[in-house]
Specification:
67 residues, 0% strand, mainly alpha
Length: 67
């Protein structure tokens, strides 16, 4: 499963995978944390992944939905 889904702490893998979906003309990419540390996951995306995505300016990011 780890070969098919990005589930590691390397922000570059997350960024590149999202960009690959964008380049394949996907309109939306959903990101989900399946582990117990939801807040840690969103902090990781806030600090590591989203700034890298914005720097590339090729993928629109949205704020995580709060429930």
């Amino acid at each position: 499963m780890a070969e098919e889904i990005v589930c590691d702490p390397d922000p570059h893998r997350h960024v590149e995978t999202i960009r690959e979906f964008r380049e394949a003309s996907f309109d939306q990419v959903y990101i989900q944390q399946v582990g117990p540390d939801q807040e840690g996951f969103f902090r990781f995306y806030e600090r590591e992944v989203l700034p890298a995505m914005r720097a590339g300016a090729r993928v629109r990011t949205a704020e995580p939905q709060r429930t």
